[in-house]
TrEMBL record:
InterPro entries: Homeodomain-like_sf (IPR009057), HTH_AraC (IPR018060). The keyword Transcription regulation applies. It comes from Sphingobacterium anhuiense. This is Helix-turn-helix domain-containing protein. Residues 219-299 form the HTH araC/xylS-type domain. SMART domains: HTH_ARAC. Signal peptide: none annotated.
Length: 304
């Protein structure tokens, strides 16, 4: 599958390519905020190599790995490089905002915040949440501030942008949790929610001495007092992924965080994540990330 980069995005939406991308040959830090108006542009189903936050109140079809999702109310979406998606607008007026940036823009701390919002909605086929009109207007104001600060040249510009992005993330997480708490969740949904709570509560690992107690689908099924096949069936029906896939994705995410943000050895990281030998962790990481843990850490450190 073809991967769209930032230059491709600006070309597709028929916007002038920012000078920083042209002069840097795509390698520089990049951040932008774009207001979307009177736009019927379709985004083909593809993988992007940049991050994007989209705020919209107009209808469209979100295309994900697990099928199409009709959006018919105010919504905010978060996308990241490893996720495939597409968008088909259903109305000419697409009033909202798009905020996009590349890996070089993210500080270690901000990357952890973006990981957090994705972890909150890991059971969904895509990271998004519907909004009522009041919350949409509140977030719309934050995006207006982002756009205004981005155009400003004062010395604290980046710090203010960082703070506004955090406000957006924390508000979205707050709305998501309030939505879950306010719903009467069916027993099957409740079991899936309990699975993700158990999964996420094992992280982050705080020291090399900390180890995972729940490692396999059977461990989770036993803790939830259900049959392993029943849990797997519910997860596949609701998320399109098996119990093993969710566990592996979470282990990979935590492995990346530790490689990027800790001074633990690769052996210590692997042991903490439940791998008996360092080479087992290396094989797992290479299978899913397509590079070794050592190379991942080296590439990340070069960007810092």
């Amino acid at each position: 599958m073809q991967t769209e980069d930032l230059l491709g995005y600006y070309t597709n939406i028929k916007k002038e390519i920012p000078l920083d991308l042209i002069h840097s040959q795509r390698n520089a830090l990049h951040f932008n905020v774009i207001k979307t108006e009177s736009c019927m542009l379709s985004l083909p189903y593809a993988r992007r190599d940049y991050y994007k936050i989209t705020l919209t109140q107009n209808p469209g079809i979100l295309i994900t790995d697990q099928g199409e999702l009709k959006v018919d109310r105010p919504t905010i979406f978060f996308s990241r490089p490893e996720v495939n998606y597409g968008w088909e607008p259903l109305a000419a007026n697409q009033d909202g905002y798009v905020c996009l940036f590349n890996e070089s823009f993210l500080t270690k701390e901000m990357k952890l915040e973006f990981d957090r919002v994705h972890e909150e909605m890991i059971a969904k086929p895509f990271t998004y949440i519907h909004l009522d009109q009041a919350k949409f207007q509140e977030l719309f104001f934050y995006f207006e501030r982002l756009a205004s600060e981005h155009m400003d040249g004062h010395m604290f510009k980046n710090e203010i942008i960082d703070s506004i992005l955090r406000l957006i993330i924390y508000n979205v997480i707050k709305v998501h949790r309030e939505t879950i708490d306010g719903q009467r969740i069916p027993a099957s949904n409740r079991l899936v929610h309990q699975f993700f709570t158990l999964l996420n509560n094992q992280f982050p690992l705080e020291s090399p001495q900390q180890i995972l107690y729940l490692k396999s689908p059977a461990d989770y099924a036993n803790r939830l007092n259900t049959h392993i096949n029943h849990l797997n069936h519910l997860l596949k029906a609701m998320t399109g992924k098996s119990t093993s896939q969710h566990i592996q994705e979470r282990l990979l995410l935590e492995g990346k965080k530790l490689l990027e943000n800790s001074d633990w050895t690769i052996g210590q990281i692997g042991q903490g994540l439940g791998f008996e030998y360092p080479q087992h962790f290396t094989s797992f990481f290479k299978k899913h990330a397509l590079i070794t843990p050592k190379i991942h850490r080296e590439r990340f450190m070069k960007q810092v």
